[in-house]
Design a protein that fits this description.
alpha/beta, Rossmann fold, UDP-galactose 4-epimerase, domain 1
Length: 328
């Protein structure tokens, strides 16, 4: 039986990855300290005999690993995911996204012979790119979140090179879907919009809404990570997006007809646009779910966001005060 470890297993991406792996008959160990992840995300699998949930921080994994005899694949999603708060807590982000990645790599290197280590990297490393972005695009770090994720990625590639660990880093663009984060910090646009729809409040659009984002539905993301894990490729970087960016105004139109415009924020690109030629060719992967289809699925699961925080223009202004201060 194939054995996989999923870090950040109760988070948005991690919980869907568990679903995907269990359907493919993997035994799955999931670790999450439930700081931002939610137990409800994995409730359906807690009674599955092939899933073992470990409620703990990664810093304790050395002790935990003594009870796990075998790990074939590692899907590393744990860490801090929201961009805006990173400007106020840079060390926290560096610790959770970079240092904990090194800690995990060391434990795995010394205790297991893994078949593949998959790192969930971020496309934010490209900064303010205005064109379709390939893996060869110049790195242009704009904020602490992007820095912390990029350092984590470089650690993964370094361990792969020096210690011959089979690693792959996947730079995720704009992932979305059911169970996306609903924490008390200002985060991803779709979650913000859905809660505003529920509350019958205008959608808060930054700038003029003509900026584009490369949205990728969660099931397409999981398939890409899985294909990367079982492939013969190692020490590679892949972009992961739809390759078909859409305007925020188009996204808003799919959700609700009321909207309000907020001032543009520095440090954010006018367009995220993944060149997915490499991952499509090497892994025989293509996205299947359009943004229109994905939003329809989300709206059928709208109750998920009922308890999410409601972001009003006033609250957003307060939450982004330091972001604007430092990145202007």
């Amino acid at each position: 039986m194939k054995v996989s470890l999923v870090t950040g297993c109760a988070g948005f991406i991690g919980s869907h990855m568990i679903d995907y792996l269990l359907k493919r008959k993997h035994k799955v160990y999931g670790i999450d300290n439930l700081t931002s992840g939610k137990i409800i995300n994995i409730n359906a699998n807690l009674k599955n005999g092939k899933f073992v949930f470990i409620n703990s921080d990664l810093k304790n994994f050395k002790t935990i690993s003594k009870k796990i005899k075998k790990i074939d694949y590692v899907f590393h999603f744990a860490g801090n995911g929201e961009l805006i708060p990173s400007i106020e807590k840079p060390y926290k982000y560096f610790k959770n996204n970079a240092l904990n990645t090194v800690l995990l790599l060391e434990i795995l290197r010394n205790n297991y012979k893994i078949k593949k280590f998959l790192y969930a990297a971020s496309s934010t490393c490209y900064g303010l790119s205005k064109r379709k972005t390939s893996e060869k695009q110049k790195i242009n770090i704009q904020h602490p979140y992007a820095f912390s994720k990029y350092v984590g990625e470089q650690a993964v590639l370094h361990w792969g090179k020096v210690y011959k660990m089979p690693v792959i880093s996947i730079r995720i663009f704009n992932a979305y879907g059911p169970r996306s984060r609903t924490t008390n910090v200002y985060g991803a646009v779709i979650g913000v919009f859905i809660k505003q729809l529920i509350s019958k409040k205008p959608l808060t659009i930054v700038g003029d809404g003509n900026q584009k984002r490369d949205f990728l539905y969660i099931s397409d993301l999981c398939e890409a990570f899985y294909k990367a894990s079982i492939s013969n490729y190692k020490n590679e970087i892949f972009n992961l997006g739809s390759g078909n960016p859409k305007k925020i105004n188009y996204l808003a139109k799919l959700i609700y007809n009321k909207k309000v415009f907020l001032p543009w924020r520095p440090g954010e690109p006018k367009k995220t646009d993944a060149n997915i030629d490499k991952i499509s060719k090497k892994l025989n992967w293509r996205p299947k779910i359009s943004l229109k289809e994905g939003i329809k699925i989300i709206l059928k699961n709208i109750d998920w966001w009922k308890k999410a925080p409601l972001w009003t223009p006033k609250k957003i202004k307060t939450a982004t005060k330091n972001w604007n201060k430092y990145l202007n």
